[in-house]
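Example record for the data management plan.
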Amino acid sequence: MRDPNRYWPLVLLFMLAAFSTNAQELSIQLGADEVGLNEMFTITVTVQDGTIKNYTDFPFIDGFSQRGTSSSSKTNIVNGKINSSQSITQRYMPLEKGTFRLPPFTITVNGVELSSQGKTIRVTEEVSRGNSRRNRFDPFSNFLRDEPSGNDDFVEVEEDAFLALTTDKNEVYVGEGFNMTLAFYVADGNRAPLQFHEAGQQLSKILKDLRPANAWEENFNIDNIYGERTRLNGKNYTRYKIYSASYFPLNADDIVFPVVPFEMIKYRVARSPSFFGRDRQEDFKTFYSKEKRIKVKPLPPHPLKDVVVVGDFELDEYATTYEATTGESLTYHFNIFGEGNISGIQPPEIIRNPNMDVYPPTEDASINRAAGRVTGSKKYNFFMIPNEPGTYNLGDNFNWVYFSTAKKRYDTLRSEIVINVTGESRENVSISSTDLGDFYDRIALVSNEVDSLKPNNTFLIVANLLIIALLGGALFIFFRK
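Corresponding structural encoding:
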């Protein structure tokens, strides 16, 4: 006789198939209207008779900080009928006391848009553990909350991961660049489930303490955190870069990167995983970097040591013509390119030649930040007009001094271009160009004798008559009184 129990797996399979064809019911549940400073407000999305395959972001709430999500599922079999639900819960930690408004919002779950009218949330003082509100029995607390049950069904797994702040140099000159990277490392043998949590918000707070005030920063702008393979001390890791930048010290003070925290979601693993139950529980752990100090050395003595750029550079130069005539304009391009603080490059020193007019340059800059290096160029375009024929060695007029990190000494980029100029001298052109016109031409036609400056006799007669009249009038008034 065949054992009837052998058919139960098939029956269960058909029941599950029938269950999956049922219409899914989706809903949103909001947390309590009032929470303490040490309590969480929650928003829960639940799917009845189905699973949550995808969902959009939960809303932000002013006065609260998102503290990650947790998932739960529940399955009941009663009289051969399977009832199942799955939930995703977003937790919010209050930041301060007060009354806050959760505005209306929508979440799309499995392609279906769910709407909520929001609510007003009141945040009060911290609630003691003995408060009756905290002691109420909730038969589904193990599904909807991340707090361990009384039986402690989830266990802590030691992680093999760490947060590290590293630099490619430990000692630099003033102005010399070095690369700094803040990254999270996870060993290949790590068994503790880890997940990033509000990385952008955490980083904005970290950088307030991390960025040195005495250094120029070139940010490599990490938009997405992704893993890359690396090996440390004979061990394989996956490195997740959180932040990376190059810094150029502005003075001889050492640069100190302090200890910074970074919070990760760390899951506790179920002691006895089941088919329908959760296999892990969300928790948080804060990792800390170590303090890092970069020694900064002053540059060797030099008249320009306070203004030179430090790095490795080359010169790319050319002129629009190498055979010119006097009065003919030409353009000279002085292009500095290489690795270093491109933003700090200043125009080359110009030693004026009285026989050539040189006008202030235009400037074009290009900066590339990639692979832990800052490279680029600055091009200066000079407009020039030679006034005298002859040979012009531009190396006598254009040079740029910098401190070479490769040579550990000062170096100079000097022009090697020679321009031959022919034509007439323009020495008198400047004089003729200042001709002031007919006003000065009339000087030769005007007498320069002193007599021409004597006042007119008619004017003197009229002036004397006016004075006599005024005196007569004054005497008449005086005697009458």
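Summary line stored alongside the record: The radius of gyration is 42 Å.
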